[in-house]
Amino acid sequence: MLKSLRIQNYALIQSLEMNPSKSLNMITGETGAGKSIMLGAVGLLLGNRADSKTLHDPENKCVVEGVFELSTYQLQHFFEQHDLDYEPECIIRREISPAGKSRAFVNDTPVVLDILKDLGKSLMDVHSQHDTLMLGDGSYQLSLIDAYASTQKELEYYQETFASFEQSKKRLRTLQKEAADLQKEADFNKFQLDELATLRLEAGEQAMLEEEQEILENAEEIKSKIQEVLNQLEDEQFGILRMLSQTSHGVQHLSKLTHKFDSLQERTQSAWIELQDIAASLEEEDQKIEVDFERLEEVRERLSKIYQLQKKHGLDSVEALILLEESLAEKVLKAENLDEDLEKLEKELQLQEKNMLEAGKKLTKKRTESFLPFAQELTKLLQQLGMENADIQLEQTSIAPTKLGLDQLDILFSANKGVKPQALKQVASGGEFSRLIFAIKYIMADKMALPTLIFDEIDTGVSGEVALKMVKMMQNIADKHQVICISHLPQVAAKGDHHYFVYKDHSAEKTISRMKLLEKDARVEAIAQMIAGASPSEAAFESARELLKN
């Protein structure tokens, strides 16, 4: 419900404020005084595009602010979803700078227009005489039937099954593409894997092979050099060990003569022991090393294969090749198992499709059961609104599953006797369409939580008697919903709980639009002027009083 509206610096409006009644509000005024301009400003709160050319004073910014009561709208989830602070009383504000920059705020938090549009749909429903696109839309017509038939439970369950089906279908498409891509690579991957697997690579082997190759390539020279060194160390007459042993005995003798040589004696003994150990190690290595040209060729061949694979795959180690082998093995295994996965997912998809179609058929059944009562009730209302020959029919066509179900719905309408009903987007004059959508909203008022309803001259082309029936219906709607009606008929304007009058003020250099809430005598005068013009007679005043009584 709209609690208050404030407009500053918009078109002909310098400053305007209104605090509408929670039930039925009437707005009247002379043509061009600013009634539709006010609706344009309201449109800004609903996310419509802004234009700096609409500024009354091009040097100052335009501000449109609405305060809404949200307690009955169940919008907490919307606010959580968009990270907005929820309060039972919500403030929406639009600002347009002289440079044309537009900003939108919900409870002082900046928002983009798409969010404001989504929120606006739940707050206000603005209908004008020429607003026919929405009613001609098939999805909107389905939503009307769903509300009328109370299919919320069936629709929600169907949409759950539809979402599961679509998700599995998407997964299947992804898996099929993956399977196709893997299949293209399968043979190549298998070839590369076999090439790597044949080598049976082991971590660290490259360094060991390179060291072994180095030894095998120099084996003869290494063994020859070892023997030469051993001869130098172990020769019985001139070997280093023999001579060092004699030296050690001499230093030992000196140590017996004086302790001053004790440390030297220990050092020469250690040197002799170390050289003995070196000789033993050389003999051990000499035993290990063999001149083996066959093994050398094997090592060279294996290293060559390793180097070739590293170059081929752009890698620099055996460990990297092992990781590649594991990755290729995983891809090959996955490709081999994909047929099984695809078959499993296809069966799952078939089951989900079956569940979805069953849920869709139940939804269709409940919808179609409401077609006749909806058409009869709507036809009866249209006849009350002066369309005696109105004919409403509902035509359902089965379609491929969509989020809204298995149905395409067309509300067919004819206003004239003998004329076959046709789709709404193809028939109906402006006045007929206004009464049609008004009748539909009257029916829906008891079926769904409608936001604030704004009717812009919906009574255009309506006779006096029909206008009285229309305004009576407005009063019924206003028992549960806030209604704002811009009217040019005195019979309609007289029935509002609040009556606002829009007029032009020429007192300043620039004409501005103003609005005032009419009370008692002022309201009688405004209704009289609507009946008889600017200078109403006493009879017009009496008629105005009579209209305001009833």
Characterization of this structure:
The protein is of the alpha/beta class. Among the domains are: 1-130 and 451-518, P-loop containing nucleotide triphosphate hydrolases (Rossmann fold); 177-337, no CATH class. The protein contains 16 helices and 15 strands. Strands 2-1-4-5-6-7 form a six-stranded antiparallel sheet, with helices on one face. The model has no long low-confidence stretch (mean pLDDT 87).
Assembly state: single chain
* Beta-strand residue fraction: 15-25%
Mean pLDDT, all residues? 87
Poorly predicted regions: none
C-alpha Rg (nearest Å) = 47 Å
Our count of helices gives 16
Brief overview:
By secondary structure, the protein is of the alpha/beta class. It has helices spanning 35-45, 76-81, 113-123, 138-149, 152-199, 205-217, 219-234, 240-257, 262-288, 293-313, 318-384, 430-444, 464-478, 490-493, 520-532, 538-549, and strands at 2-10, 13-18, 24-29, 62-69, 89-96, 102-106, 109-111, 124-128, 391-402, 405-414, 422-423, 452-456, 483-486, 498-505, 512-517.
Q: What descriptive keywords fit this protein?
A:
Rossmann fold, 6-stranded mixed β-sheet, alpha/beta, 550 residues, 6-stranded antiparallel β-sheet, 16 helices
Element layout with pairings:
Layout: E1 2-10, E2 13-18, E3 24-29, H1 35-45, E4 62-69, H2 76-81, E5 89-96, E6 102-106, E7 109-111, H3 113-123, E8 124-128, H4 138-149, H5 152-199, H6 205-217, H7 219-234, H8 240-257, H9 262-288, H10 293-313, H11 318-384, E9 391-402, E10 405-414, E11 422-423, H12 430-444, E12 452-456, H13 464-478, E13 483-486, H14 490-493, E14 498-505, E15 512-517, H15 520-532, H16 538-549
Parallel strand pairs: 3-13, 3-14, 8-12, 12-13
Antiparallel strand pairs: 1-2, 1-4, 4-5, 5-6, 6-7, 9-10, 10-11, 14-15
